[in-house]
Design goal:
Oligomer: heterodimer
CATH topology of the largest domain in chain B: Uridine Diphospho-n-acetylenolpyruvylglucosamine Reductase, domain 3
Helix content of chain A: 25-40%
Strand content of chain A: 15-25%
Number of domains of chain A: 2
CATH architecture of the largest domain in chain A: Roll
Number of domains of chain B: 3
Order of helices and strands of chain B: HHEHEEEHHHHHHEEHEEEEEEEHHHH
Distance between the termini of chain A: 50 Å
CATH class of the largest domain in chain B: Alpha Beta
Number of helices of chain B: 14
CATH superfamily of the largest domain in chain A: Beta-grasp domain
Strand order of the largest sheet of chain A: 2-1-5-3-4
Strand content of chain B: 25-35%
Radius of gyration of chain A: 15 Å
Structural class of chain B: alpha+beta
Radius of gyration of chain B: 19 Å
Distance between the termini of chain B: 53 Å
Number of strands of chain A: 5
Largest interface: A-B, 31 and 26 residues
CATH architecture of the largest domain in chain B: 2-Layer Sandwich
Strand order of the largest sheet of chain B: 3-4-9-5-6
CATH topology of the largest domain in chain A: Ubiquitin-like (UB roll)
Chain lengths: 156, 288
Amino acid sequence: MVNIEIKINGKIKCIDVNPRMRLIDLLRNLGLTSVKEGCSEGECGTCTVLLDGKAVTSCTVLAFQADGHEVTTVEGLQTNGELDVIQQAFIENDAVQCGFCTPGMIMAVKSLLNENPHPTREDIIVAIEGNLCRCTGYLPIVKAVEQITKESVDLQ
Amino acid sequence: MSIEAISLMPKNKEELVKCLSHADERTCFAAGCTDLIPSQSYLKGFSAFVDLTHVCNMNLIEIAEDCLVIGATATFADIAKNPYVQSYANALALAASQVGSSQIRNRATIGGNVANASPAADSLPALVSLDATAEVLGCDESSRMIPVMEMIKDINVSVLRPREVIWAFRIPLRPHVRSAFVKVGGRKRVTISRLNLAMSVEVTRNRLKRARIYLGTLGPRPLLADKACQVCENAVLESFPLDLFLDALADKVDEAIPTRPSRAYKRVAVRGLGQDILNLIASWECLH
């Protein structure tokens, strides 16, 4: 076992992990079930979380590699019971149908907006290219992100 | 002493060397893990995993003397957007930008891509076309320099010994060099290359010299498109013998995979890739 210190959704945790354990398994064992297991090989994006603010597929990261790093899941986006703007925009634009891809999709968008608060449509498409959705046809998701971008420009 | 007792997370080169000296054939030195975890070898199991992502300075991208140095744990996301790579090794920047999805590019490393030695690896033809050398670190802190082409022994087999890791890649800075990379896969993006093509060439007053053109996916190693290089020698961009160039590429595909069912598709696809890569080379000044 390896002892790691990891900040998950703002809280520091010291945990013993098996060196073979994947980050997705650690997070789900901790009750963070927004992190879904899909393809298990980094193709579908449904297990996407933020590692130090950047989107990664948690099924292709070993848990102990997150030692000293910060992990954010959808559970960590709410503040004082208020949804994040991305979650709100997804609701308003009907960007959720079955919902299985939604947490991963939201985290991929969060990573994009962390790096580039004013993405173009092309930037948005590239950011979510690793997230498969079989319900929405992607357009409502792109629209939701464009709404966030537009609102942030309007605020300025 | 077992390797677990030494460190599973070396923090610097000295600690890494210590780990290397205690490693055996069942020790896995891992960074991005994007190829490792989905593979069978992860399931079969190694006796220990050593994480390379915590080793400081192993992901640096910098200019040192007359080389562009790219640390082995630099991610494809870092490489794709690095201004030095875009200026001096654009083929590699373009290859890095087309690896997997944004999530994969945020984790996958150039060292892992080369060590994994996949025939479809996008970084390999780019690195080889740029004359890159791998700096391989051994357990006695010594380094051996290996041309990237010679890093590949066979399909998914590199020349790395059990107590060695790739520390960095060195790409010589050559004046007037333009380079590019193109690929075709089953879909437009997030796709494994069915065929890829990298080219570097010196361009002075629109005249081409010393072209290095490599095709990927046709064998264990990138394949030098020698006749296409000859067509480029001394050619002028405005009157470039395009048909001869594309024919030479298609002939190379025929020669490399005469009996493979994909030959018919790839000999046509390579012509499209050839046109695309020349457009990128010709429009270099507009793009940079």
